[in-house]
Design goal:
- With 318 residues, the chain is an all-alpha fold.
- The protein has one domain.
- The chain is 50% helix and 2% strand.
- The chain contains 13 helices and two strands.
- A two-stranded antiparallel sheet has the order 1-2.
- α3 crosses α12.
């Protein structure tokens, strides 16, 4: 296992030191060109940030190398890297005739301009728009909680022999992890985190979040709820555009790294220092980072709420 990990780190480092391999194939519609500035000049900077993340990921994937942090963003979240890379203007935006459509649902008008038509929006998707709006409004309406300290990752390895990221070592022994978990109040409100707790860890959680209770349980301090803003955005592709999608992805990317740094896994081989929540100083560091992420997520959430309300009005117009 150690040899495989060293092999991965060596190959990953060689790739980064040589910048971007010529073998990486990037969707041609993502080229940095006038189409991005046609919509919003700030998209140029965002697209470069996305490209910097995606190209190394795609290269590592072509070598069948796993990454315990990045893989989550493309496996747990089921939106392909190629779709993320492809610039998509979204509803209410018209593109020039020489633009290559990012999705088959774009139509050309008599002047050759490309756009999405409200008449093509699936009526059944309105139910999802309404539900996501209800969820996001509910999250906005309740106080943020910052006392969980990221213990969900610890609860996922509590008293279990086979951990999820078996290519990684743990920073503490199994008994030390168990002692720490038992010493802390676990207050996980996110169903999709809680359901991965080990059987012995689930009773230790003060809450019992279920799939049907998401509207009642989720709150804006939760890093998983904030990462999920990416999911709610890509689920309405191509109607919601790359501007909002890239903001949500970059937030999820930053949050995922923060999440894993606070975990009991040893990520030093990947250049990541731990946030040692097993210490008082580490827990304070976690709370500070959690608050910073929540503040950024609030902006993304409000932009998503605004976009969804506009989309609903547009999709039901005649």
């Amino acid at each position: 296992m150690v040899m495989l990990l060293c092999c991965f780190v060596y190959l990953w480092g060689m790739f980064l030191s040589q910048h971007i391999s010529s073998s990486v194939q990037v969707d041609s519609s993502f080229e940095i060109n006038d189409f991005l500035t046609h919509v919003d000049p700030s998209l140029l900077e965002k697209s470069q940030q996305i490209l910097t993340i995606i190209e190394p990921y795609q290269h590592a994937k072509s070598l069948q190398l796993k990454h315990p942090v990045l893989d989550f963003l493309f496996e747990y979240y089921s939106f392909s890297a190629n779709k993320l890379l492809t610039f998509n203007p979204g509803f209410k935006v018209s593109m020039p005739a020489d633009w290559t459509p990012s999705d088959y649902r774009y139509s050309q008008d008599s002047d050759g301009q490309w756009s999405l038509l409200c008449s093509d929006f699936p009526a059944k998707r309105l139910n999802m728009v309404n539900w996501v709006l209800s969820l996001l409004d509910a999250i906005e309406s309740r106080p943020k909680a910052f006392g969980c300290y990221g213990l969900h990752e610890w609860a996922m390895v509590y008293r279990i022999d086979q951990v999820r990221h078996d290519q990684l070592n743990l920073r503490l022994s199994s008994s030390e992890i168990a002692d720490f978990v038992k010493s802390q109040p676990i207050k996980c409100s996110h169903f999709d985190a809680y359901r991965f707790f080990t059987p012995e860890a689930q009773p230790l959680n003060q809450l019992r979040p279920t799939y049907d209770q998401r509207l009642e349980m989720e709150q804006g301090g939760c890093i998983h709820a904030n990462m999920d803003l990416y999911k709610w955005t890509y689920k309405l592709h191509p109607w919601l555009g790359s501007d909002l999608l890239w903001d949500a992805f970059l937030l999820a990317h930053e949050t995922r790294y923060f999440d894993m740094q606070a975990s009991p896994y040893d990520l030093s081989a990947y250049g990541l220092s731990p946030i040692p929540i097993e210490t008082p100083e580490g827990r304070q560091t976690y709370v500070n980072g959690q608050k910073s992420i929540a503040e950024r997520a609030e902006m993304v959430r409000r932009n998503l709420i605004s976009a969804l309300k506009e989309l609903r009005t547009w999709a039901t117009s005649t």
